[in-house]
Amino acid sequence: MERFFAAVVQMTSGPHRDENLSRAAAHVREAAARGARLVVLPEVFAWRGARADEAAHAETIPGPSTEAMAAVARETGVWVVAGSILERAPDDGRSFNTSCVVTPGGEVAARYRKVHLFDVDLAGRVSVRESDTRAPGDEVMTVPTELGTIGMSICYDLRFPELYRQLVRAGAELLVLPAAFTFVTGAAHWETLCRARAIENQCWLLAANQTGMSPHGFADYGHSMIVDPWGTIVARTGDGEGVALAEIDRGYLARVRRELPCLEHARLR
After folding, report:
1. What pTM was estimated for this model as a whole?
2. How far is CA 186 from CA 106, 156, 221, in A?
């Protein structure tokens, strides 16, 4: 499909899964009613609570969250990038942070386990160690669809351009980024990094962020956005929950790559 509308959903998710899933489904319905064919939800959209509780609330895939998103995908006839879900891992009690692509028919077409984990310890300021409760993935994931090839990533991945170059070499045209970017780092870097990943890979980038106060005691940045292959922000939300929608033009992507063929000129692999 050459042209279609896509949407990013911004949420403030908490520790009540049924409530989060109900709101996520409502946002997908809103996006679909506005014409979206692809909807991207934020990181940990389905359940977000204390780190110590993560193992108890991790789920299987298929499981409650993917089944709920499959139902709304079938109802609306849209592709849904089911943000990320804490997926039960078999080994050491940690969970994978997993994003799923759900087809309009309700099938899980692909899953991507977040590769880069956010471990930061600033004395007296903030301490976040995702690796204490989450296990890293090890696979780069692209998903061919009639809307174009989707390249998958999650939040902290945004800081690692080598991942996105691997995605584009595997055919990615649409980079999806469910996230829970904090306010401090978001205010400093979110827009710059989103635009940079779109520009350097000449892709559409759809970034769906959490907003408001997180269960971990710090604020998330919001400002979910859709960026075109030239680096222009064509849609964005503000600070609260909501949906941002934009038309995706694959012909424009092809023109940008043709007129400025930097992907063909790359020499270092």
Report:
1. 0.96
2. 33, 11, 5
